[in-house]
Design a protein that fits this description.
Order of helices and strands: EEEHEEEHHEEEEEEHHHHEEHEEHE
Strand order of the largest sheet: 1-2-3-5-4
Largest sheet: 5 strands, antiparallel
Number of strands: 17
């Protein structure tokens, strides 16, 4: 079935429906194949016949457009158009195709189903939750609040990940997102941005994940922080059956769940953060940026990467004691499969830039740290090509 019924629509707006991915209050999301490039995308289709639907798609489009160039953990937007269907009109939004939402992935994956919660090194929560905070930070940095963060609106971007370190998540569904009016306030040392509360709708978003203050009309970005705290708890709590999740969240909200109920109890930094995220008082909750900084400070210094000699095919796994250039070189020198002395090494990172494989020189500690940080943010592997200085990678 062809998605666009408007014969005058340009080719790049014509898609063939494959199957439906989900339905919501204001429309449907379909997997569809582009007639222009043959690739698969997610197409959200929303009727323009209702006031609620019109408001919903305008908000979503506005925020997606603002985040269009962001490479952070937010679903990628491509374009939108209006489609004529009979006597009605529909808004179509083309986005990247993700495989499954986080809630379904936990229970339906090829890594043991719910047993994935028990995994070690890295744990699911250590790998996934910083990505969620990174996406929230991107949204909040432009003064928008999502208002509907839950495990159904966090998507697994890559298809069929083979291990936890392969998982890349994206925040999606911005129909309830709102821009929060801001003002500037001068303090003794700096100029700060202060939210100014206009009237925000009370009681919006998923009830199980909703922050307490969302029952009123005055709240800000911290409602997303509370909701993310519940997601965080579910990433650390082993719940054998999906049917038990709702009751588990209700028990958490009644303060009937504590650290001893978590499967992973030993990570004090992460455990303390859950308590802060779920604080009843929004002023006591950290921002997404501060929470993310806290986790990065608390993460182990060990950095994992893949390395191969220039001109060879085999990649070798390495674990460095730090993220500096010298620690990377020392690790490579001590690898029995490579063994080139540190002072003779020339290192370059293999990256995909604008769909082309590129090599980027690793020349300083700053570049090395940015390399690891970028990979962690995007859920990618660090891949280094090494030479002895005689053979230079192109």
């Amino acid at each position: 079935m062809e998605l666009s019924h408007d014969q005058n629509a340009p080719a790049q707006c014509r898609f063939n429906k494959i199957h439906i991915l989900g339905r919501g209050a204001f429309g449907e999301v379909w997997k569809a194949q582009s007639e222009e490039d043959g690739k698969f995308y997610a197409i959200k289709i929303m009727p323009l016949s209702t006031e609620g639907g019109t408001k919903y798609h305008k908000r979503e489009l506005e925020l997606l457009t603002k985040l269009e160039l962001s490479e952070r953990n937010v679903i990628k937007y491509f374009k939108s158009w209006i489609m004529n269907v009979g006597s009605g009109r529909q808004m179509c939004i083309q986005m990247e195709l993700c495989s499954v939402n986080l809630g379904d992935f936990i229970y339906f994956n090829n890594m043991g189903g719910a047993e994935i919660i028990k995994s070690e090194a890295p744990t699911l929560y250590q790998h996934v939750f910083p990505q969620i905070l990174n996406g929230l930070d991107a949204i909040h940095s432009i003064y928008w609040v999502h208002r509907d963060i839950h495990i159904g609106n966090i998507l697994i971007a890559n298809h069929n990940p083979q291990g936890i370190s392969d998982i890349n998540v994206k925040i999606a569904d911005f129909g309830l997102a709102r821009y929060i009016e801001t003002d500037f306030k001068m303090s003794a040392n700096s100029l700060t941005v202060v939210p100014t509360f206009g009237k925000l709708s009370a009681g919006v978003g998923n009830e199980l994940f909703r922050a307490p203050e969302q029952s009123s009309e005055e709240y800000d970005f911290k409602v997303d922080i509370y909701s993310s705290g519940i997601v965080f708890y579910l990433l650390k709590r082993y719940i054998p059956n999906r049917s038990q999740v709702d009751e588990e969240i209700k028990a958490l909200r009644r303060n009937e769940r504590h650290i001893e109920h978590l499967y992973h109890k030993g990570d004090q930094i992460f455990n303390n953060l859950i308590t802060q995220l779920l604080h009843e008082n929004p002023e006591e909750r950290p921002t997404a940026s501060k929470a993310l900084a806290c986790l990065r400070r608390g993460q182990a210094a060990v950095k994992k990467f893949l390395v191969k000699k220039y001109g060879e095919e085999t990649w070798h796994r390495c674990s460095s004691d730090g993220d500096t250039l010298s620690s990377i070189k020392a690790t490579i020198q001590n690898n029995p499969n490579i063994g080139i002395k540190a002072d003779a090494q020339v290192l370059q990172q293999e990256m995909t830039i604008q769909n082309k494989e590129r090599l980027v020189a690793i020349t300083s500690d700053e570049v090395a740290r940015e390399m690891f940080l970028s990979a962690e943010t995007k859920g990618e592997k660090v891949m280094i090509i090494e030479s002895d200085g005689k053979k230079q990678p192109l």
